[in-house]
Please model this.
Amino acid sequence: MEAAASYVKDGDDLRDTELRLGLPGTEAPEKPAAPSTRGSKRALQEDGDMESRAKSRPLEVDCGEAPAAKTQIVGWPPIRSYRRNSFPPRKVEAEAEAEAAGLYVKVSMDGAPYLRKIDLKVYKGYKELREAIDNMFKCFTQGEVSRKEGCSSGSESAITYEDKDGDLMLVGDVPWEMFISSCRRLRIMKGCEVRGLRTRQYS
Amino acid sequence: MTYFPEEVVEHIFDFLSSHRDRNIVSTVCKAWYRVERLSRRIVFVGNCYAVRPGRVMARFPGMKCLSVKGKPHFADFNLVPHDWGGFALPWIEAAARGCPGLEELRLKRMVVSDESLELLARSFPNFKALVLVSCEGFTTDGLAAIATHCRGLRELDLQENEVEDHGRQWLSCFPDSCTSLESLNFACLKGEVNAGALERLVARCVNLRSLKLNRAISVESLARILARTPHLVELGTGSFTVEHRAEAYQRLIHAFRKCKSLKSLSGFWDVAPRCLQSIYSICPNLTVLNLSYAPAIQGADLVKLIRHCFKLQKLWVLDCIGDKGLAVVASTCQELQELRVFPSDIYGTGTAAVTEEGLVAISSGCSKLNSLLYFCHQMTNAALITVAKNCPHFTRFRLCILDPGKPDPDTNQPLDEGFGAIVRSCKDLRRLSLSGLLTDKVFLYIGEYAARLEMLSIAFAGDSDKGMVYVLNGCKNLRKLEIRDSPFGDAALLVNVGKYETMRSLWMSSCDVTLGGCKALAAKMPRLNVEVINDRDESDEMEENPSDMHKVEKMYVYRTLAGARNDAPEFVEIL
Model:
């Protein structure tokens, strides 16, 4: 509809044969020119026409685009380079987002049909974490997961986690703060694999 | 008056504090010129290329304090190529020859080499104060020379300079006999400093009132320093990263409680919100607070802090304070005179932090507000009109709407009426920066009403030459005009050429001025330097003889007695 009309308006026959991503009949968005190229020394001016400048303002093009696509204008906003270089604002934002969002990790139990997800930030320590996991997976277990060292007397299950290096670790070895900063997912192990873990632990 | 003995005239001139007044009396007659020039102690040179250094020294042999400014203001925003000029060395050399009694030197936006600092350190036996603002070109070796040789140094104030780090030993170069420091600011240095040497230095400088540390200074060190300097009036903290349960933090709180004279705080580079509690005891005495380098403090914590600061006169803050936070400032800080709100999210990817609401709130609570720098996502005419009514005392009003050319979001109109209200209401307005969608009309208002305006900054504004003409013909006190990305061309440039001799400078970049227009201006006005600055990556590709119709990318025009400067780089053409 709209896209087809603009095809005709442009009168650019070669567009039909141009290879591009997207379904036929859709227009791929034009990338705005980067300010460092020669052609666009005047911030984002598409044509050098004085009249058109009077009517169109730079960056009106951005209305529909995602903010990340906004082109940078040299020297704008007008803040001193010293201040600009003093802190990278984007990084701080990402960190702040992570702070607010919580630390959600997947929890799987061997043999259970589905996984759960918990926010590690909510718990103050290992005791609370184990209690919460007990509650979550109560319906799948006969006995309880033991409180000590993740090893149980009855059903032989252990809570393990995958750390940021990808290694499988036993929950409870490191201080809580270190644990929540390195834990990527939790896994409740059952049966003979647990015995294997325990043997390795004492060897 | 000329029948009075010279000593009496000189004594009368002592009461003239402003440079302008002294400049005026020196033009009355030869006798007054002579008395004035021999008695002038403080000399201010607003443009280092307007006059030769030697001439200044010859005219004012008794000079004790010299201030010189170099690059044009838009250099702050990377619009002036790196090697454009503004060298401090010729000034220091001339002063060493002509005014060896120099005591204070203040330089802004200049290129200062280690060589010039070394010369400075050795040439002036009574040297007391060095202030460098937004300068570059030196390293910590230059600072070492100052520390080593300037006996009796009272002030070393480095503000927002680009300094290359050549090691931490410079601070240890202050001899043990140095006890005279009253003000030390090295916040802009990136490298480490010998903490022990610093602590010993501040301990023996009993008159130290202002201390601004850099980011490398730990909280532990800060606590020890504060314990030795309980009479500090101004403090710039270091990184302020500390676990709030740590012992150092407790010692810090204790030290802050002892500092009963603290009136100004800045720094807080990496402070965790919880640690702000440590300064609650000082807040009721604070008149100046600069939190603009502390992005980790969000609105709610800022607000908790500011609620304690009811004597605040000057506040610099990031826009994460939000409109709600500004409302708290408005209700708490009745004495506020200066507010600066900086953007924390420069690339506009986040949610709007402050809008016109925050500014309106401030204006209704802080009736003494006279200086504003406000970065925001949007502004309305209605808001500006309200602000103009609430705060008629603005002397500096700088508004930056982050999205260039953005109209009033409620009415989709340009912001002409809003800014018009500001210039009509604020009769003492000296400095104005515009932004948002603006037509020629705003310049009609400015030309008509802004009688005291001295500096005007224009970006992405106006429709035609008429805009610039209104300003040139209207603002009789205009000293600095800087314009970027606006449709003003040769007709506007040449309409009132005599005006530029009454001004310090004119900057135009990405406008419609042509080479031919610049040449015409230069031909008509021999006492102006008309500099055409080409972007360096273009200068190789430019034709040997560009036509006069060619639009000039950057032009800098300034009045001068010194003629064309001889230190211009090859990408600068002086017509």
